[in-house]
Amino acid sequence: MNTVSASPRVGLFWFSSPQTFFPLAGRMIPLFAALAIGLGLVGLYIAFFVAPTDATQGESYRIIFIHVPAAWMSMFLYVVMAFWAAVGLVFNTRLSSMMATAIAPTGALMTFLALWTGALWGRPTWGAYWVWDARLTSELILLFLYLGFIALQAAIDDPRRADKAGAVLALVGVVNIPIIYFSVQWWNTLHQGASVSITRAPSMATTMLWGMLIMALAFWMYSIAAVLHRVRSIIVARERRAEWIRELLAEGRLK
């Protein structure tokens, strides 16, 4: 009787504990890693061997198959990071704060990749690797927010205090996401507008669109695998004194 009455609560909160989430994450990592590799290979094949040459930018446009998915993920991951940070701040849940901490390095990587590929694309397109364009500047600020989140947490020894301080910074930084997205509409910028929109037909060939979307999925799968791997490491580091971690260490299942 007690088991039946407690089942809804178990269903909702069972995996909110690091102890129950840890093995689940371990089982999911190989799946998402395999999907990332498979989708990445398909996307790159379409990008370099199937998609036609752009009539205006020539072959240099092919960098968008890396640049655009990285830019999408840089913004999406920040929103997800801020969400988990807020959940941890409001409900004081350990795993939520660990998830936010685990997301930050991958988000910073995606932001750096978006800026770097954007510079390589900007040289033949604009004649310069960098201009203080509204879209580029706000994306650079996003990188600083990621790095600031990581540095702030690293500077505070107490994990609980570090999580709370990082959550405040993450929530304040969310205001930058709509600025990045709408910058090309709000200001007169060199950066081109969105090629893919939910309100109108895409302004690119179908093969280009499919290649970009597949690469975006590959980046998404990679991000999930990387975050799950990192959150397992964070769980081990923070829960090292817990009995279940000591048992795993004794069995040789953790290094």
Descriptive overview:
The protein is built from nine helices and no strands. It has 255 residues and is mostly helical. The longest helix has 33 residues, at 18-50. The two termini are 41 Å apart.
Which labels suit this protein?
single chain, 255 residues, mainly alpha, globular
Order of helices and strands: HHHHHHHHH
**Whole-number total of structural domains:** 1
Q: Which sheet architecture does the biggest sheet show?
A: none
Task: Please provide the count of β strands.
Answer: 0
- Please identify the structural class as seen in this structure: mainly alpha
Proportion of helical residues: over 70%
Mean pLDDT: 85
SS element count, helices? 9
Task: Write down the Rg.
Answer: 21 Å
Distance between the termini: 41 Å
Topology (elements, then pairings):
Elements: H1 2-13, H2 18-50, H3 64-91, H4 94-126, H5 134-155, H6 159-173, H7 176-186, H8 206-238, H9 243-250
Brief overview:
By secondary structure, the chain is mainly α. It is 76% helix and 0% strand. The protein is built from nine helices and no strands.
